[in-house]
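TASK: fixed-backbone design
INPUT:
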């Protein structure tokens, strides 16, 4: 996972994390080991000074960019010790959501140190999580291709709004990302190589395209109308211009 200031964090099967500079790739800037098992996901907070990681042992860890563990002061005993596969910070990093094999998403408030909600999906392993730009909507997708939306109130509770009308192209969800400027637009990447852009406000599909036929597609939205794609087969595909979109969709796979 990369940060806007040119730093990249990668995780390994052995539980280690490496912080890289995109301007100096010969060796990592820092290496630390927050987990004893495989690191399944790593994310930067909104200040790019904290790295959250989750692992196969079901633990969530926050670290500084130099690898110093940060005391969460939250009781994680209520989370079953099953593999966590995905996590996401809210836009202001007040909330952090984690999910995995249990098909349940756990929403923590990092200010109150309380577990604010257990949000239930559709019975399949959670593969990707995303907050919208206002941190009021939380989306998560699973390996069966289901996507669930929750409206997140200030107290962390919310009503589930299922994307039942979504005409999924098949395959599991590999990535979710909201547009930064048009927060109602959600890009959904699938293992089939399809990308579907869903308008959450209208409850309808905005557009779809298939830049790749290979599995492992990951999408990330910015705001310029460009689409860069990569996959586990070819690593990079040509840059494409999509003038009808108001955001950039990048797709990449980091093999550590």
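OUTPUT:
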């Amino acid at each position: 996972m990369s940060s806007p200031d040119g730093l990249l964090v990668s995780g390994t099967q052995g539980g280690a994390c490496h912080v890289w500079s995109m301007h100096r790739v010969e060796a990592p800037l820092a290496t630390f080991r927050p987990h004893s098992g495989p690191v399944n996901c790593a994310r930067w907070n909104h200040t790019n000074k904290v790295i959250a990681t989750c692992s196969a042992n079901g633990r969530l860890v926050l670290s500084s960019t130099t690898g110093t563990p940060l005391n969460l002061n939250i009781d994680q005993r209520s989370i079953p010790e099953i593999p966590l596969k995905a996590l996401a910070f809210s836009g202001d990093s007040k909330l952090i959501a984690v999910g995995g094999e249990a098909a349940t998403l756990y929403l923590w408030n990092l200010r109150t140190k309380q577990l604010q909600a257990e949000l239930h999906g559709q019975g399949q392993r959670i593969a990707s999580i995303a907050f919208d730009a206002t941190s009021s909507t939380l989306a998560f997708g699973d390996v069966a291709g289901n996507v669930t939306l929750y409206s997140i109130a200030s107290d962390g509770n919310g009503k589930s709004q299922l994307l039942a009308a979504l005409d999924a192209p098949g395959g599991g969800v590999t990535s979710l990302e909201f547009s930064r400027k048009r927060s109602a637009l959600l890009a959904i990447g699938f293992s089939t190589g399809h990308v579907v852009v869903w308008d959450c406000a209208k409850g309808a599909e905005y557009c779809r395209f298939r830049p790749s036929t290979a599995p492992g597609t990951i999408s990330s939205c910015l705001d310029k109308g460009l689409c860069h794609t990569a996959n586990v087969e070819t690593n990079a595909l040509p840059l494409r211009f999509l003038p009808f979109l108001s955001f950039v969709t990048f797709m990449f796979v980091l093999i550590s």
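COMMENT: Residues 222-256 have pLDDT under 50 and may be disordered.
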